[in-house]
Structure prediction request, 219 residues.
Amino acid sequence: MSQFIVHSVPGSPFGRAVLATLEEKAASYRFSPVALGTARSEPHLSRHPFGRVPVLEHDGFMLYETQAILRYLDRALPHSTLTPADLQAAARMDQVMNISDWYLFQGVNNVIGFQRIIRPRLLGSPPDETAIAAAMPKAHAVFNELSRLLGNKRYLACEAVSLADILVATQLDFLTLTPEWEPLTSECRNLVSWLERMNARSSFKATTWKRVAELAKAA
Prediction:
């Protein structure tokens, strides 16, 4: 099978989810860095008409939207499947992936992560504490629900890692860099143990922000 090319910004949790999935599949890929602030201009705009990341390129086929990319990779590389065979477990995976996109990212990570990490580290601006405080009630609700869905299982959909674990873990690992992580997980300790299991996987060790930044420099 020909090589996969991942167009993304180093540090993007969504881009990391794609890279980690490729690592889980032991697939050959190339990282094509998209410089911060250039996603809404050419040439990236031709890849993604809404100017976001990541984009997967495979043998002339372009695909954007992270969930679509992850499912494509799981179908294109069927060994070591990341979709549960059980119907209800697969449905739970789909549900959790949507929770990640619509509730964990929207209104939580795109606020807290942006204010705490992106603004000071990459934009040189102080965080907006009012915006962070306003996002915390929703953040607590999302963390509590993910904790409830995980329960005593090893992984979010079943006892084996799935696409849901990869998508959520990349978002939560980003939030560990913020002071809000501790209050958000004080009553969700199963999420902490679960994230430790995810970060111990070789796919996550190979796709840290530092490692992907190194790939970008070598590109």
The chain has a mean pLDDT of 97.
